[in-house]
Specification:
mainly beta; 2 domains
């Protein structure tokens, strides 16, 4: 593993969060994702122009307690380059998965590269194997690291914080699983939630990325943008609502919930940002 994670401390998730019913149940039955309205989840899929071809679908949503995700990817094996000494070996095109999260909507405070997330930045990484993604660990980006370098510090306190179903082969022959991460596991103020996912083959080379990145006619990469994760509408316990237009003429909704003012943009994005109501 290129960036091997050594867990120094594991927090038992069940002791840190309270149970509650949810629209999304992490049970390996993916049908509840089909019951979400389009404005309740974000969806990303690659097309023929994608730089990487083995990550097929990302869906995500959130409520007041969790960020939920669904991942669908290749179950195939092929000739994968490992090292100069060993050359190519037969192995999985998708072995490890990284969920990258931006919580502050600030492109200067996390990891990005010219190819990935150029106008976004990930402060947190959830990395693990699809074989046991419930053992994936939450790793912070080292604020002293240059943004273009892999600054997710392997020696800091790592937290096991993911609940995930077992991966299974679905009808189209792809492999898929679903999971959730508790928001109270993540320190600091959560201004927004944006996600991106990349996958690695057994040789630790990129094999998939969503939202996709593409190449320009010049051959240079056109960086992908992290996706804003909408709220489940059923989780918005609305105490006051007002419809307004934003400065860029986008239809918005003001929602006061739990003493916080949330600005919900558009009909499908539902980018929610909280501001304390006096």
């Amino acid at each position: 593993m290129k960036h091997k994670l050594i867990a120094l401390f594991i927090v038992v998730l069940a002791c840190c969060i309270h149970a509650q019913s949810s629209v999304i149940s992490i049970d390996g039955d993916f049908s509840d994702w089909k019951n979400l309205a389009e404005e309740e989840r974000v969806l990303a899929e690659p097309d023929e122009n994608s730089c990487y071809e083995y990550l097929y679908r990302l869906m995500s949503t959130q409520d007041s307690d969790y960020i939920y995700f669904y991942l669908e990817f290749s179950a195939e094996e092929g000739d994968v380059y490992v090292t100069q000494d060993h050359g190519y070996v037969k192995g999985l095109y998708v072995d490890y998965l990284d969920i990258l999260i931006d919580f502050d909507n600030d492109s200067t405070t996390g990891w990005n590269t010219n190819m990935l997330f150029k106008e976004s930045a990930a402060e947190w990484l959830i990395e693990g194997s699809w074989k046991n993604f419930s053992e994936a660990e939450l790793v912070p980006f080292d604020t002293l690291s240059p943004q273009g370098e892999w600054g997710f510090n392997d020696t800091t306190l790592l937290i096991s914080c993911v609940v995930a179903s077992e991966a299974s082969i679905i009808d189209n022959g792809h492999r898929a699983f679903e999971g959730k991460i508790a928001k109270n596991m993540i320190p600091g103020k959560m201004d927004s939630v944006k996600v991106g996912v990349l996958t690695w083959d057994i040789g630790w080379s990129y094999s998939g990325f969503l939202p996709q990145c593409t190449f320009l006619e010049s051959g240079d990469p056109a960086p992908s943008q992290m996706l804003s994760v909408p709220y489940l509408l059923k989780d918005l316990d609305v105490t006051a609502v007002e419809h307004v237009k934003s400065a860029d003429d986008v239809q918005c909704t003001k929602v006061i919930r739990d003493g916080q003012l949330f600005i919900v943009r558009g009909e499908r994005e539902f980018n929610v940002q909280g501001v304390q109501v006096k």
